[in-house]
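Lecture 7 notes: from sequence to structure.
We start with the chain below.
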Amino acid sequence: MRRADRLFQIVMALRRRTFITAAQLAELCEVSERTVYRDIRDLERSGVPILGEAGVGYRLRPGFDLPPLMFTEDEIEALVLGARMVQRFSDPELSRAAQKVIDKAHAVVPDNVKARLDDTRMFAMRFSPLAGSEHLGALRNAIVDRHRVEVAYRDKHDVPTQRRLCPLGLYFWGATWTLGAWCDLRQAHRNFRLDRIADVTVLADAFPDTAPYTLDDYVRTMRERDRITPGYP
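Predicted structure tokens for the same chain:
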């Protein structure tokens, strides 16, 4: 669980109960009590009025509530269209997450905004599977975990090659996804079209968050080459 999600879950637990112990929060969030104590301190510093202390228990100050989640009609359309695009053009895990975003918004917005949420007539259509999208999940996770990947790739001349990459970012160009990465073979930043990747293996080998293995380094290289368009290694 991401730290931001854990903090949100702690606040939700405090809202639901009049009193909850650090041990109960630790079990709920699947972390240590020491982590809960640190999270409670951070929430207090950010302005959440938590009453109690370590070893006793916690509750929210009576009358406190989170600010309401409000959207304008244009924001609702942007939310729904964005979620629908994610559902059509990404991997199954992100597709499910996009639907959960809409469900969560539906649960908290006022009734007059719910009508716009339900009746939005903006769609993202795709009539056939997007080539290469089956690799999105593995590559997304590798980017987050900063793990190298090995890919079976065919270049623009249809020549097969094995590449060992440090994946840095994924870009969608309307017809295909492109992976921006550091290529160990070429010792340079390269772009790889996902529709030319036959197989992806995520390796246990992690790469550091230092030059040249950062997204900023990749973007800088592409700008210098004037290649912020789908490129070919």
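Points to note: Residues 73-89 form the longest helix (17 residues). The chain has three domains: 3-60, 73-119, 133-225.
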